[in-house]
Design brief:
With 759 residues, the protein is of the alpha+beta class. Helices cover 41% and strands 7% of the residues. It has a five-stranded mixed beta sheet. A hairpin with a 2-residue loop joins β8 (220-224) and β9 (227-231). It is flat, with a radius of gyration of 30 Å. The N and C termini lie far apart (67 Å).
């Protein structure tokens, strides 16, 4: 075990551990890391590993995060061992073997001696990552902390150098992470790698006093009854301190077992690494990976295709790493998504044995992939080996890596798409962006995670076919931005829409239909809305929506009436479609409204943080309810007759229909939003008489509020204890504010995106 970890860590002079190209990256979840280390500290076996001697011409990559040479850098190939099976276990083990400061590790593992261990585990182990710097939930190690706990963790710092409230947060690194013990009575976490490093330095002697000294230097802060409480070793009572010491002794016993553990290495024939066998359905190594044990997690088709292509063409790995280094829209796709996109674009030039275009696959199966890469013999007499070689050569051109990127490569297409989509700022550089409505229609970077792979592939195809060229053509850029905004909001089945879009591009971008080519994005929109089974809803003008009875807020009889969104069988098709169209704009089933990122793009563009972290990770903004949910979503302690549900003008679903509508949500800086709490709009929007008029206008503009201030004031309680108390007057003011802003935002989208050209 010890020798293996020394080899894998990259600092040993004996063997170097590398990965065959077919291997995936580190995919284990925090719970799997914790369970592996708990098993080792309890003296349990963790199975065997499979390795093979890597010959000099066998492509490979280093273990993720480990500083060691790539292929061809060792004089004796026997010193290079390929890890065929056991990558996930090895990388999880290295979290405790290497100090994170000496590697590019993606996780840190902590031992909290002050916390009671979960049932069935020796110690309380916690995981932190760069994107989850405060760790995960104690009751579910794979679940992120709640938004409230993450805000508390940022506020108290929790030993993390993450900045202070009201200042720009620096980008997190593993160096400044530490788990936040939400709900724990006590918490004193120590890095497992530092504990093991102390053991190795002391050779196991006097380890307990050293750990105790480290523990006494730890300070944590938590919230208790709304107050910040500092917790240290000295603040714990004597019985608790005795428990902490008992857990240190338990770990000392576990480490003695760990350092005595052995792990079998099973040799694998190097012949499996040959990549020149295209006769069968799979290369030998792919077949091996499907059969190396019941504990191996099966590769899904995208991961499988990525692994096979990496094995056949090592440059695939370099292409992926190169695209990720650029920090543009390519960073939002997984490695397998990037390769799948390359395969799909390359296949647009391939023909079947009958001379027809090959089938377009949005998400090919393993069998589809093999038919594409290893085709049957065609009428020209070319063997499948020859055709396979031609197709792989074609794919290699697309995947080639040069800086700057050469034309007709995936990297060049991503650069073109990014330049067409990116937000350029306000048209008037001398005016602060939130004073002017003349915003550039581009996308602020924080909206990119919402685009999705199907649309990204369509955008890349538009660059590939020549519709998007450099320098940027403003008319085509406006057309592309309209398609992107429409797609994100009203396309119901993105994979099917992507297939239709590829067909339109193939039909119209071949040079025979010049008129259609100039309006290619509009043709895509028309196709996906007019297909036999439409996958998107047709656009409707604001005037058309206003004319539908009760839809946009005019003459509503019931607060939050959901029936207005439901299609009436007796209405014309156009009216039924318009109701469904506006329902998707209203989006009351979810308080997250990506279109607000575009509507508030001047403000959003100024927010800090890494936009390419994705919307599932920590973001610098919140989707903030203007009238907070605590006012209309919880009636604890409020007697009947004073609740929103009891108003005469309200139906039972009103609180969600109105409260979660786009009109009641704004995008707001997460650090500033912490200070708002559940304050009423009266306070949030600074509408009281003591506010500076200019400051109030600035705040309203940034919040995308240009009218209806009186209604927001009227639905705001004057006192904190009144926030859950409602009458008909307040309920109707809330209705008017949300209805008016929802429709105003739609009119802004329609005008500023130029949708009148499509309607």
């Amino acid at each position: 075990m010890i020798d293996w970890l020394d080899w894998a860590s990259g600092f040993s002079k004996d063997y170097k551990i590398v990965l065959p190209m077919i291997q995936r990256g580190f995919v284990w979840k925090p719970s799997q890391i914790i369970e592996l280390w708990d098993s080792l500290l309890c003296g349990m076996p963790i199975g065997s590993l499979m390795v093979s001697e890597m010959e000099a011409d066998y492509a490979n990559v280093p273990l993720p995060g480990i500083p060691q040479p790539l292929r061809g850098e060792l004089s004796d190939p026997r010193l290079r061992l390929g890890l065929v099976d056991g990558q996930q276990r090895t990388l999880a083990l290295l979290l405790g073997w290497n100090l994170h400061s000496s590697t590019q590790a993606s996780h840190r593992l902590w031992v909290d001696f002050a916390e009671t261990p979960p049932a069935g585990q020796l110690l309380r182990l916690r995981v932190t990552t760069k994107n989850q710097p405060f760790g995960f939930r104690r009751d579910d190690p794979n679940a992120k902390l709640s938004m409230g706990d993450r805000r508390k963790a940022r506020e108290v710092g929790n030993n993390c150098k993450m900045g202070v409230e009201g200042t720009q947060q620096p980008q997190s690194t593993l160096e400044n992470t530490s788990p936040y013990a939400a709900g724990a009575a006590h918490s004193l976490p120590l890095d497992l790698a530092e504990l093991i490093a102390l053991w190795r330095e002391s050779r196991g002697r006097d380890w307990e006093p050293g750990v105790l000294a480290m523990l006494k230097a730890v300070e944590t802060i938590k919230f208790q009854n709304g107050q910040k409480i500092l917790f240290t070793w000295e603040s714990a009572d004597a019985p608790s301190q005795e428990q902490f010491i008992e857990r240190i002794l338990s770990m000392e016993k576990g480490l003695r077992l760990f350092f005595k553990a052995e792990i079998p290495l099973l040799p694998v024939d190097a012949a499996f690494f040959r990549a020149d066998d295209v006769q069968g359905l799979e290369p030998p190594l792919a077949r091996l990976f499907k059969r190396i044990g019941t504990n191996a997690s099966p590769l899904l088709p995208p991961d499988y295709i990525y692994s096979i292509l990496k094995h056949l063409m090592p440059e695939v790995h370099d292409m992926v790493e190169s695209l990720y280094a650029q920090g543009h829209i390519a960073s939002l796709l997984t490695s397998s998504d990037l390769v799948m996109s390359s395969l799909r674009l390359a296949a647009t030039a391939w023909k079947t044995p009958e001379g027809k275009p090959v089938t377009d696959y949005d998400n090919p199966s393993k069998e589809d992939f093999h038919r594409l890469i290893w085709p049957k013999e065609d009428k020209s007499g070319k063997t499948n080996e020859t055709k396979a070689g031609e197709r792989q050569a074609n794919l290699r051109v697309l995947l080639s890596v040069t800086k700057p990127y050469q034309s007709n490569t995936l990297g060049s297409y991503f650069e073109i798409v990014h330049k067409y989509l990116a937000y350029r700022g306000c048209y008037n550089p001398d005016t602060p962006p939130y004073y002017s409505n003349r915003f550039d229609p581009g996308l602020p970077p924080h909206i990119f995670p919402y685009i999705g792979r199907p649309l990204v592939q369509v955008l890349l195809r538009l660059a590939q076919c020549g519709y998007l060229t450099m320098p940027v053509q403003d008319d085509r850029r406006a057309d592309l931005l309209r398609l992107t905004l429409y797609w994100m909001q009203w396309v119901r089945e993105p994979p099917r829409a992507s297939l239709l879009a590829f067909q339109v591009i193939s039909d119209l971008a071949g040079g025979e239909h010049a008129g259609g080519f100039e309006n290619l994005c509009r043709e895509i929109y028309k196709t996906i809305t007019n297909a036999k089974k439409p996958v998107g809803l047709p656009l409707r003008t604001p005037r058309f929506l206003m004319e539908l009875c009760g839809l946009t807020g005019n003459n509503l009889r019931v607060l939050g009436d959901t029936l207005r969104f439901s299609p009436d069988p007796d209405e014309p098709d156009a009216h039924r479609q318009a109701r469904g169209f506006y329902r998707r704009w209203w989006r009351h089933w979810n308080y997250r409204h990506p279109m607000l990122l575009w509507l508030q793009r001047a403000y959003v563009n100024r927010l800090p943080g890494n936009p390419m972290a994705g919307f599932e990770e920590d973001t610098p903004y919140d989707f903030d309810h203007i009238l907070p949910c605590s006012h209309w979503g919880d009636w604890t302690g409020i007697k009947e007759g004073q609740r929103l549900l009891d108003c005469k003008v309200c139906d039972r679903d009103a609180r969600w229909v109105i409260g979660n509508a786009i009109g009641n949500v704004r995008v707001w800086d997460a650090s500033v939003n912490r200070g708002d709490g559940d304050a009423s709009p009266w306070i949030k929007l600074a509408t009281d008489s003591t506010s500076d008029d200019r400051s109030m206008r600035d705040l309203l503009k940034m919040s995308a509020i240009s009218s209806g201030v009186c209604d927001w004031r009227d639905c705001s309680p004057r006192q904190e204890h009144e926030k859950k108390i409602w009458d008909d007057s307040r309920a109707l003011a809330f209705q008017r504010a949300v209805e008016g802003r929802s429709f105003h935002l739609y009119k802004r989208l329609f005008k500023e995106a130029g949708f009148e050209k499509w309607s």
